[in-house]
Design goal:
The structure holds 2 protein chains of 2 kinds.
Chain A (H helix, E strand, L loop, with lengths): L1 H19 L4 E5 L26 H8 L10 E5 L9 H10 L3 E6 L6 H9 L2 E7 L4 H8 L4 H13 L5 E8 L7 H10 L4 E6 L16 H14 L6 E4 L9 H4 L12 E4 L4 E3 L11 E2 L5 H7 L2 H4 L15 H4 L18 H12 L1
Parallel strand pairs in A: 1-2, 1-8, 2-3, 3-4, 4-5, 5-6, 6-7
Antiparallel strand pairs in A: 8-9, 9-10
Chain B lengths: L1 H12 L1 H4 L16 E10 L9 E5 L5 E3 L5 E7 L4 E7 L11 E5 L5 E8 L3
The chains are: A alpha/beta, B mainly beta.
Chain lengths: 356, 121
């Protein structure tokens, strides 16, 4: 009864958030250059490095179309590897002058003591670093020897700052699944307070490597691992918002699933395209900063993100969970859009049936 | 720990405020921390001229900045009840030699501007 009430209230809240669609999280794909060559490249970022970095002034011009930035608006520098750019700090300071907070998603390789200092000086407030397992499995996924050591050094540095809201993310795959308990202990020892786990979806290079993808039973194992970890306060472990996980919703996250792509989350992509999260199929672009005003596009377009009835097709058409899931994370829609690419809830229910 | 409680409180206040407690799947956490911008200029007490190369650092913190050719510095740091700033001449005789100085800032707002005078050694 209480669960039903909670879900009802949350649906009302979602509808209100969709109606207001306040922009408070803006990705900037500031470069597609990268210093790594990960096995899963293209799964959660662009794999093309043929683009020139977008000039900072072009991005700031787009930002300046936002008449009254929300008090909570934050720009998230992503890539590629954002730290390959030398003007992140200058851009960050410009954003702070405009009352906008900012953060970085990094692979950690260039996160030196000097860079840590200059980024904090420029007002960086949050940071995410990827660590994908213990030494061998991390280096395997990142396709680079010694990557693990560099990332651990970056993690230790980031953990020294009380100012930063910092977390570590891990792409869970068949190689690192059994290491998660050890990895958790390692992170706790290094002073990490928050750890986010996600899975790799079969796009980009991940299509050709089945070892990167979890089976249904392994996915259930991951859910149980996260649920168990959350019983302790040593480190805040959670599942990312990549998908709806049905009965595990209250057990693996701080709040219920809500894909905010195009509702509160926007992006300026490397070619100037305006969209939501950078891992969303690029055919969903809603405009381009070189032709359109970013904020006008945000206010007046984004219909497919704010009314998702179009995705009530394929297995979602008759699904009883649709009103809470609404077609799963938006990035799970690509190609011919006739069916959702990954249904996390189905993976759970499939493996539960098997176990029963 | 403090931040975790803050998130819970913010999330629990109302549906409107809960709207902001989220992170995109492949993004970073939200920035809930408060900070302050400390700016200023370091000059020589005897001549009134700006001093380049002075290390301005926050005590018990890794953060620092070196003053530019106009003696200016500017950086964000964590908001605390009081912030102790240390000014140190770290470039030996280059740009002159000055005695180190500490300053404790209290009653802080979001932005602070400081005029610092250093005495010759």
């Amino acid at each position: 009864m209480l669960l039903r009430l909670k879900k009802f209230v949350f649906r009302k809240f979602k509808n209100s958030a969709i109606k207001h669609h306040e922009l408070n999280y803006l990705f900037w794909e500031c470069t597609t250059r990268c210093n790594l060559n990960c096995l899963h490249c293209g799964s959660d970022c662009s794999k093309s490095s043929s683009f020139q970095d977008m000039p900072m002034a072009d991005f700031l011009n787009a930002i300046d179309t936002i008449e009254k930035p929300s008090q909570n608006l934050m720009v998230v520098f992503t890539g590629g590897e954002p730290l390959l750019r030398n003007d992140i700090e200058v851009c960050g300071k410009e954003l702070r002058k405009r009352g906008i907070k900012w953060s970085i998603v990094s692979n950690g390789h260039l996160y030196s003591e000097q860079r840590h200092n200059s980024l904090l000086n420029a007002g960086m407030g949050a940071l995410t670093i990827s660590l994908d397992g213990l030494k061998d499995s991390h280096n395997w996924l990142r396709n680079k020897e010694k990557s693990f050591d560099k990332v651990i050094s970056a993690v230790e540095l980031a953990a020294t700052s009380n100012r930063l809201n910092f977390d570590v993310v891990t792409c869970v795959n068949q190689r690192n699944l059994k290491e998660l308990s050890q990895l958790r202990e390692l992170l706790i020892r290094r002073g990490v307070k928050a750890w986010r786990l996600f899975t790799i979806i079969p796009i980009g290079r991940a299509v050709k490597n089945s070892e990167l993808l979890l089976t249904d039973r392994q996915f259930l194992e991951l859910m149980n691992f996260i649920a168990e970890c959350r019983k302790s306060n040593k480190i805040n472990v959670k599942f990312s918002c990549e998908g709806y996980v049905g009965r595990y919703e209250p057990l693996v996250r701080d709040s219920y699933f809500f894909c905010r792509a195009g509702i509160n989350i926007g992006s300026v992509l490397i070619d100037g395209s305006i969209s939501a999260c950078p891992n969303i199929d690029r055919s969903f672009s809603q405009g381009n900063i070189y032709k359109d005003k970013l904020y006008e596009v945000w206010q007046n377009k984004f219909e497919p993100f704010r009314n998702r009835q179009w995705n009530k097709v394929g297995q979602c058409k008759t699904c009883k969970e649709y009103k809470d899931c609404q077609g799963n994370g938006f990035h799970n829609w690509n190609g011919d859009m006739k069916n959702v690419f990954v249904c996390h809830n189905k993976k759970i229910e499939n493996s539960r049936k098997y176990l029963n | 720990m403090k931040r975790s409680w803050l998130k819970k409180i913010i999330g629990g206040l109302s549906l409107t405020s809960a709207m902001f407690v989220f992170q995109a799947c492949y993004g970073t956490p939200q920035d809930f921390g408060l900070d302050l911008l400390i700016e200023g200029q370091v000059k020589a007490k005897t001549t009134g001229l700006p001093i380049k190369g002075i290390k301005v650092s926050v005590a018990q913190n890794m953060q620092y900045q070196i003053t530019d050719e106009n003696g200016n510095f500017s950086f964000y740091t964590e908001m605390m009840d009081k912030v102790k700033l240390e000014f140190a001449d770290v470039d030996s005789v280059q740009n002159g030699t000055y005695a180190n100085r500490d300053t404790v800032l209290t009653d802080l707002s979001e932005k602070v501007y400081l005029n610092i005078l250093l005495e010759n050694k």
